[in-house]
Structures are given as C-alpha cells and as structure tokens.
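Submission checklist for the structure archive. All mandatory fields must be present; incomplete records are returned to the submitter.

[x] Identifier: WD repeat-containing protein 89
[x] Organism: Caenorhabditis auriculariae
[x] Residue count: 389
[x] Sequence attached
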Amino acid sequence: MPRTVEISRSKVRSIVFGGSETVAVALQSDLIPLVDLEKGTVKRTIDVAKKIAGIHFAFTKTPVLYAVDDSFGVHVFDIRADSKKKLRLNPDVENHQAKCSAISDNYIAIASSCFIQPVVKKRKNQKEYSDDEEDTMTSHVISIFDARNPCAAVMTLSKYHPAEITSMAFDRKGVRLAVGDSAGNLNMFDLLNRKKPQIVPPKQLNATVLTNGFISRVVRYALTADNTVHSYVDDDGGEDILFVKKFPDNEHVIHVMKGSCDDFPVDTISTNDEGKLFIRTIEQDGEEVRLLKRWSGHKSRALVAAYNDEIVVTGGSDGLLVINPVDLSAGADVFINENEKAAEKRKKDPEEVKTPSKKETDAKKKAKSSKNDSESKKKSSSSNGVAAK
C-alpha cells in the first residue's frame, strides 16, 4: 500500500535514492529533507542556505550526498557519520550561475548560464583542453571537474547549447554525458575525447528537454515538455531512433526508466491532474503502451519521481512524498499473460485492462461465502424437514 509523507509546504523539485532506506528531496526552498522510507518519516533536514542546482548520492563505504548550489559550491554530507564539508569549484567562466548538475565516480559536470557577458579565463599554464578556441562560446556552458580533485575545471563545453541547459546525466561508466536544453537541443559527449567530445550528431526536438539520460548500456531517452518520450539506441558508434511516443494531454509523464523485457524496453511513471499515478510499459517500436500499475496518493498532479527497482517515490506541488513498493521484475510478460484475453478486447485503451483490486477480490469472496452459507442452511432445513416426516 502507498504511504504518504508530508515533508513541506514547498513543492518537490527532485528526488534521489541514498540506498534502499533513504531518499533526499530537493525542495523549492534551500532545504533538503532526508526521508526514512521504512518508517515514512523525515529523519533530518539539511539547510544549504543557497539555491540548489542539483542533488546527487555517491557511494563509497557510506552514502554521501552532494548538493550543488547556484554559485558553484558543492556541499558534501556524509549521512552516517553526520559530517559535512563545502568545496568551492573554480570554473573557466565568469559571471555564471549554476543551473543543473550531474555527478559520476569520475567527473562533476555543472551547467551554467551567463548573467552579464560571456568571459573565458585564459591560464598561461593550463594544460587541459577547452573547446572555446574558435571563439564561438555561447552564454550556456558545461564545466567539467575531476571528481577526485574538483578545484579547477579540466574541460569546458562552451559552444553546443544556445539555450539554458535543463538536464544532464552520466552513463553507468561515468564518461558519457547526455545533455538537453530549453530549446530542445540534445547532445551526447564523451569526456575522454577532449578534442572532439561530441560523439553523435546533435538532435533538435520540438520542445524543452525536461529530463534525459541512459536507461541501459545502449539505450538512452529524452522526455520533452510536450509530453513526448524519445528513445534512441546505439548503432555501430551512431544512434538510431527506437521510438517517439507522445502521451495524451490528460496524463503527464514525469519519469522514464528501463523496461523489464526486450519487447517492452522502456517504462514510464505518469500522473494526472487528480494525483493518480500510473506505470506504463512501451513496446520496442512505440506502437503499444500497456498499463502495469496504478495508485493514488497526491492531492494534485505529481511533478517528479524516482525508482530503485523496489520502490517508487513521487513528489508534487502539494509538498507530499508518496512511497509505494512496486515489483516490476516480471514486468510486461506477467501483465500480458494474466490479461491476454482482456487485452485483445481492449487494445486501443490499455488503461481499461484491469486486474481486480484486493477490495474487489475480498468482496467477491465474501459474496461467494454468503451464498454458500445460505445454500448450506437451505440444505440443512430441507434435511431436517425430511427427518421430521
């Protein structure tokens, strides 16, 4: 059953898992509540005292939370040891505010926008590469730092995004970086290739990129503001479109994740204006979308979600966190087998393919039990009548 935790009156901006027991939540304010998933309570609230550009968990021996603020400060919190420190990063750009961030074991990437005039500092002894040699720098850049020694930038990507960068994500190896912006530009960079980091041709989508990233070694995705999921697959060093799927206007996709089988490689978490939540799975060619799970919990439309293979956590403008244990390990295969006949009848409306709820099942059992009891009483009374004769 879903559990609801009221964490704030401020809306939830992002959610990240810190292991199987904890999530960190970035709010509209500068506060980061840490929520105990088992107890459903806020066990600690971290005050960064700066506008938060991104939050991330890294794992060594203990979970460590990184909070990136808008002035290139990185606040590092060791959750178990209850210790903290702050790093001040030194980018190769001036007059910039951090907008979003991504962290891997190898790199810290911070996207920023210029609020006065684009300036790149030239260091005489700088050995690392920056791609601004042709003087084509835009007002929106990505500064790359070595995660082990993050004081100075080792790379600056400065000519690829003419609009504000809205989403960044590393692949599992932590060397490829997927980036999207508010004008619908989508890029992928190989940070090991300093001279030519842009490894696939850029893509121009029709709307702002809300989130993008990698759901497997060969498949990546982008979710755009027009409620469309774009999926791409590696093809001998290039990329092919796997599918482009637009969802209906009355249901908003808020999270994209790996599907549980090859035929249905992409799952989505979506919400409607009443706060109901849905997990749907998308067929490889994008033609068919099937409902896997549904539940309620929010007072209005949810805004963000996170999933760790066991639990879905969602947050919204109502300041609520809804925690729902969800097992998708069997995924579409089980769904298809259990609902094969119903699915054939209702192919055009996957939401109509329903599995009876526990309440409905209990009601049917109770009705059947009552019917059996009444039949037993009738038989008993008739047998008593025969005996009396």
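[x] Structure attached
Curator remark: The longest helix spans residues 358-388. The domain at 3-334 is CATH 2.130.10.10 (Methylamine Dehydrogenase; Chain H).
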